């Protein structure tokens, strides 16, 4: 059965205040900047969760679940700060991560249905996304979608995180930090318009509810009516609201309740027709596979292959409606200066109703329907204890967390109707019924040790996984109808994972570090032979160097990595055109460079380069030793912005960026006939605060963002199927803040 129903049918994401210096463990450090909200200088963050200054991250709880500064942490951490989100105005997670080194978005072309991406060659779409420190559980066709307007920041932790987070990929995790209540009153309203009939309104406001400040709130909301480059067939409609409230009865106790609901509609299929019939083997015979003549070797292919400009779906049967919600809390209490407890809890639910349709180049029609219901629960509780052993200071975490996922999926495919038969724009009978439950329970411990300039993080965890998968088939499901087939598969597995990482915080701004860790990752759904997908196991080694430029709000980082996964998950298009989940052993290695800065003169900068070399170790005789499809060896991105702080242009802000993706293969056979050529995309931004020309307009601003400014649209192939890049998109907004 298809486990990832992408439905790629072939036939059927120096203003550094020179603060007072402090001496700690013999290291001269700049004090941590703990500023909440967004000020005129771009400072932002939620103290105790994440803080930043402009484009430069200062602290994040994601890496260690403590408040160790980013510069000292022995791991690669990339952060998309609030200032970056504000300047680039991304519309989904792929766009938000577009300037992050080692992150590959757009491998499946323009597809607004899912936030799909790779990190260091590993697809972590299903298993690597966390929300406020808790895993975001996804099912085969039930993936939570992100609304960037609801985020404070995004933390990307590279390397294995299983030692403290449990089931997660060896490449790392992406932690989405939600907006939270503030201790001051604020508000903003915004109206947007732009490409593809876009009409949108936002608001975000909050603050204390009483004079004592013990209770504060925040409400963030967005409403959008829009199409896409594919017109009404692929909509971009959305209604989103995220209320939150914080209770702080004392300086020692804090409870924040976070909730969210989103109702979104897009296209059930965003695929174009693909040409297969013009492929021939070396004997001139038309083929649909790698080895038609049966000699045990892949045939040499000639002829055309790939997407044509005939969009396959029909607006009359192509809606993908998704309703998702979550509610939970973050609780923390300090017993004293040495001992504190934290607990994060969340319940989430997701309902998807996906219609998809297909017209081939000859006028033939088919359609399908998927209804999926996803319910998940997660709770993470840990005790943080600080103590000393001689000259070494320790921060010990001991915790337990539990995650549970249940999903039900119903699928049906209508008949293929050749012309002159009229297409049927009606729901087909649901004939396949899947249900799976997974429960993951883990206990963990981590010791964060500071000794003079050394930082050592060492941790271990044991997870217990229990999974039950059931599947039923029927010609038509009606009351009393017999089932054609029924099967139930069980799986129980446990795994120990660990991490050890060491850094040295030199007094000149440099921090070299090294780490090694293992990972364990539970996968939902089945693979092509209808067996339950096995958990993925992996290991990663990494070494790097961080440099906080003395006297400037700027950082430069470099790292080299090696990782290996056993039973890793990728997707591959089969002969029916469905993108199905398969498992393989592979390794990835490479290096990354990045720099971020927000300087006193108004300059903001992001620059990154990544080299990623993947190799399939075990899949089939035709693919072993090949590269994983869709992953470029070379990629770089540069974004530069300038905020005018004085003179006649004061209040004006300009920015532009370039994203480059190198050549890569379009399938795991690494056939040159469907390889993807290198390409570059240009983005731009301009904004103006009107208070500098009319004081009565204080708080009013205009901003225009353009992605893919020069409308670069090329074919992009992944897993044996071909798509097209998203074209130019321009969004203009008027905002009022108070």
From TrEMBL:
UniProt keyword ATP-binding present: no
TonB-dependent receptor plug domain ranges (all copies): 70-173
Bilayer topology annotation: Multi-pass membrane protein
Top-rank taxon: Bacteria
Signal peptide: 1-19
A family per Pfam: Plug
Keywords associated with the record: Cell outer membrane, Ion transport, Iron, Iron transport, Membrane, Receptor, Signal, TonB box, Transmembrane, Transmembrane beta strand, Transport
Domain TonB-dependent receptor-like beta-barrel residues, every copy: 272-709
Region of interest: Disordered: 34-53
Location in the cell: Cell outer membrane
Family to which the UniProt record says this protein belongs: Belongs to the TonB-dependent receptor family.
Protein name as annotated: TonB-dependent siderophore receptor
Native source organism of the sequence: Chelatococcus sambhunathii
Top-level taxonomy: Bacteria, Pseudomonadati, Pseudomonadota, Alphaproteobacteria, Hyphomicrobiales
């Amino acid at each position: 059965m298809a486990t990832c129903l992408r439905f790629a049918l072939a036939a059927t994401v120096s203003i550094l205040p020179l603060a007072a210096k402090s001496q700690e463990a013999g290291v001269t450090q700049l004090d941590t900047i703990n500023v909440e909200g967004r000020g005129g200088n771009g400072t932002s963050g939620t103290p105790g969760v994440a803080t930043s200054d402009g484009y430069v991250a200062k602290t994040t709880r994601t890496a260690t679940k403590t408040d160790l500064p980013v510069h000292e942490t022995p791991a690669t951490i990339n952060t998309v700060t609030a200032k970056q989100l504000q300047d680039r105005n991304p519309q989904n997670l792929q766009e938000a991560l577009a300037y992050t080194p080692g992150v590959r978005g757009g491998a499946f072309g323009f597809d607004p249905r899912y936030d799909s991406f790779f990190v260091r060659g590993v697809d972590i779409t299903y298993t690597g996304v966390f929300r406020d420190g808790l895993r975001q559980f996804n099912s085969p066709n039930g993936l939570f979608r992100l609304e960037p307007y609801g985020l404070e920041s995004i933390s990307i932790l590279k390397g294995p995180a299983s030692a403290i987070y449990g089931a997660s990929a060896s490449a790392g995790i992406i932690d989405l930090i939600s907006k939270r209540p503030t201790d001051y009153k604020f508000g903003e309203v915004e109206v947007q318009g732009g490409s593809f009939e876009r009409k949108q309104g936002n608001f975000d406001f909050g603050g204390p509810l009483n004079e004592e400040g013990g209770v504060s709130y925040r409400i963030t909301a967005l409403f959008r009516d829009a199409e896409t480059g594919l017109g009404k067939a692929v909509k971009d409609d959305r209604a989103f609201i995220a209320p939150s409230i914080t209770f702080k009865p004392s300086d020692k106790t804090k409870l924040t309740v976070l909730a969210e609901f989103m109702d979104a509609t897009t296209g059930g299929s965003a695929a174009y027709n693909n040409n297969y019939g013009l492929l021939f083997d070396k004997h001139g015979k038309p083929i649909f596979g790698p080895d038609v003549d049966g000699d045990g070797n892949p045939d040499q292919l000639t002829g055309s292959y790939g997407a044509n400009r005939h969009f396959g779906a029909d607006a009359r049967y192509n809606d993908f409606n998704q309703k998702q919600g979550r509610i939970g809390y973050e609780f923390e209490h300090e017993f004293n200066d040495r001992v504190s407890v934290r607990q994060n809890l969340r319940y989430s639910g997701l309902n998807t109703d996906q219609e998809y349709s297909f017209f081939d180049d000859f006028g033939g029609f088919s359609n399908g329907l998927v209804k999926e219901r996803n319910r998940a629960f997660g709770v993470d509780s840990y005790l943080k204890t600080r103590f000393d052993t001689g000259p070494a200071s320790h921060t010990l975490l001991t915790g337990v967390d539990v995650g549970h996922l249940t999903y039900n999926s119903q699928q049906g495919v209508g008949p293929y109707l050749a012309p002159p038969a009229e297409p049927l724009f009606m729901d087909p009978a649901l004939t396949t019924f899947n249900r799976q439950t997974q429960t993951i329970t883990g206990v963990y411990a981590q010791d964060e040790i500071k000794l003079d300039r050394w930082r050592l993080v060492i941790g271990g965890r044991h997870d217990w996984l229990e999974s039950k998968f059931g599947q039923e088939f029927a010609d038509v499901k009606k009351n009393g109808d017999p089932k054609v087939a029924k099967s139930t598969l069980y799986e129980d597995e446990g795994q120990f994972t660990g991490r050890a990482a060491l850094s040295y915080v030199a007094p000149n701004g440099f921090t070299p570090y090294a780490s090694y860790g293992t990972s364990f990752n539970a996968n939902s759904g089945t693979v092509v032979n209808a067996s339950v997908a096995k958990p993925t196991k992996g290991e990663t080694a990494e070494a790097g160097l961080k440099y906080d430029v003395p006297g400037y709000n700027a950082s430069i980082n470099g790292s080299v990595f090696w990782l290996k996964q056993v039973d890793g998950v990728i997707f591959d298009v089969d002969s029916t055109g469905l993108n199905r989940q398969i498992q393989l052993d592979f390794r990835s290695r490479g290096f990354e460079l990045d720099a971020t800065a927000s300087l006193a003169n108004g300059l903001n900068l992001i620059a990154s380069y990544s080299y990623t070399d993947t190799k399939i170790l075990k899949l089939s005789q035709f693919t072993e030793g090949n590269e994983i499809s869709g992953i470029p060896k070379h990629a770089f991105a540069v974004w530069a912005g300038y905020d005018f702080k004085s003179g006649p242009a004061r209040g004006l802000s300009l920015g532009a960026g370039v994203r480059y993706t190198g050549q890569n293969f379009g399938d795991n056979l690494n056939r040159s006939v469907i390889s993807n050529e290198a390409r570059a995309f240009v983005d731009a931004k301009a904004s103006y605060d009107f208070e500098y020309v009319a004081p009565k307009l204080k708080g009013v601003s205009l901003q225009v963002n353009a992605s893919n400014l020069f409308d670069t649209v090329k074919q992009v192939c992944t897993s044996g199927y071909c798509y097209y890049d998203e074209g130019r998109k321009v969004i203009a907004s008027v905002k009022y803040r108070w």
